[in-house]
Amino acid sequence: MEAGEKEMREIFEETTRRNVNSVVEHSNKTRELARDLEERIVRLEKIINSQNQIIETLRTQLAAIQTIVFRGGTV
After folding, report:
1. d(CA 63, CA 61)
2. What's the whole-number mean pLDDT along residues 1-29?
3. Where would I find the H helices in the chain?
4. Contact, 53 vs 46, CB < 8 A?
5. Tens digit of pLDDT for each residue in 19-74?
6. Three-state DSSP class for 25?
7. 4 or 17: which carries more pLDDT confidence?
8. Angle CA 6–11–17, to nearest 5
9. Which long-range CB contacts under 8 A does 16-21 form with residues at least 24 apart?
10. Which among 2, 24, 4, 6 has a CA at the least distance from the CA of 14?
11. CA 40, CA 48: separation in Å to the nearest integer?
């Protein structure tokens, strides 16, 4: 009976060890993915801000052109 208990204990320890290693690996991968996504979000926010500035510039230019066109004048 003792040999069986020892064998069961070794199997249990090995299974526990593998489970813990899997959890650690999963946690590390998840942390890495979260950092990558955070960097992407920061880059996308910068792109959005840049595009918003371009849109605002174009709106200002369009307003000037519309003013000229609607008053019937030429450039």
Report:
1. 5
2. 92
3. 2-70
4. no
5. 999 999 999 999 999 999 999 999 999 999 999 999 999 999 999 999 988 887 55
6. helix
7. 17
8. 125
9. none
10. 6
11. 12
